[in-house]
From TrEMBL:
One of its GO terms (biological process) is methylation. The keyword Signal does not apply. Keywords: Methyltransferase, Transferase. GO terms for molecular function: methyltransferase activity. PANTHER family: TRANS-ACONITATE 2-METHYLTRANSFERASE (PTHR43861:SF1), TRANS-ACONITATE 2-METHYLTRANSFERASE-RELATED (PTHR43861). This is Class I SAM-dependent methyltransferase. It holds the Pfam family Methyltransf_25. Residues 1-23 are annotated as: Disordered. Residues 68-163 form the Methyltransferase domain. InterPro entries: Methyltransf_25, SAM-dependent_MTases_sf.
Amino acid sequence: MSSDARDSNTDAGNGAPGLENGEYVNHLERSRTVWDRWSDWYEMSENDLEPMRETAIDHLELRPGDRVLDIGCGPGVNFERIRSDIGETGTLVAVDYSPEMVAKARQRIEDHGWENVEVRRADATTIDFEDEFDAAIATLSMSVMPDVRRTVENVHRSLVSGGPFVVFDIRAVPTGPARIVNPLLWRFLRWYANWNPDGDVVDSLAAVFEESELVETYFAGVTYTVRCRKATSEGS
């Protein structure tokens, strides 16, 4: 599939609630700069986090023929596993704002010859999709969004009735004496990933989705997986 024509160049800050337009755009552009910088090094963490990402994908319970959305796909670390679950009859659409990450994701697609996987360079908070998805996933991407709540709402709108959304992400230490490291952790995540400390991913998921459950935690709760599901409409 050709995806270059789908790259979004619109003003990403238009109408973003909860943020001044300039603040929203500045955060988005910082993310682009940060993730362009780390695009050559991202694979260093790919293997270390693979078991957690695989478990998150397990929670989607994908089937052959499913249409899947990957939010903040980076260089495409989830593609091979998702593609193996949905088969040649399924479709995977991935979104990332970093041009360098998108380029590497598209190269991965080309190297594997996947004809049912495409990557769009766009802001996940504001992008509109022409078709609904059977499932969606976000791994280590929701917490860097400039407007977490609105991104969650956008994913919710993009899912079919009853569709799952699984998020694997990172946060400050939630409880216990280890919280003493949080100030250092905040600074590191802000520098390393342009982390948004004002966007509570877990609370946003619970507020928007009809079902939301924290199903996995790692490293004193710093990394975690939440499984959500859109309500099933009557007659579905």
